[in-house]
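Entry 14. Two folds queued back to back today. First construct below, sequence then structure tokens.
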Amino acid sequence: MTQDTVLDLMRDGLMTIMLCAAPPLIMGLAVGIVVSIFQTVTSIQEPTLAFVPKIVAVLLSLILFGPFMLSTLTDYVNRLMAAVPTLIQ
């Protein structure tokens, strides 16, 4: 196994991780910004107010983007398993 092969495997793995982690993180970030703007405008400084909408948004994004995330992970694992015979050399 060459250094280029290892770097390609690492790059593909990191891209897969980013593609799978991005939807829930972006949804949580967007909801957090909206809630913080709402808290600033209304002068409500309740720290627990931000948690429930974020949790709901992340759960909804997991339900919505779950099939995409699962297919991305399965494609990566299938590519990795198909490449095993060439990596053992």
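Second construct, same run, same settings:
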Amino acid sequence: MADDAELYNPSPFYLGSHAIVSQGAYLCGATHEYNDPAFRLVSFPMRLGAYSWICARAAVNPGVNVGDGAILALGAIATQDLEPFGIYAGVPARKVKERLRSAVPVSSGKPVS
């Protein structure tokens, strides 16, 4: 994890091999039940796949999982799961292209752990 990256993880986070979280990125693992008068905290386990990359100042919403090799671009906000090897940009993040699977070491078609 780079400087000023923050993982708010009341529930477990799983970071796959070689997952990168760049400077100023924010991964939020919880929210509040806003219709509950007690404003109860609701947390979610989350996963960053092997060789995934959360770029600088990007944010991942509660409960969003990032597939192997996926990239969340600079300042983008992930509001839903990111498919393996997809490249996502914008607010909310949308898939803009595919990452070459040859860009990461593989064994039997899966990223090496």
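Quick look at the second one. The CA atoms of residues 36 and 42 lie 11 Å apart. Residues 6-111 form a domain with the UDP N-Acetylglucosamine Acyltransferase; domain 1 fold (CATH 2.160.10.10).
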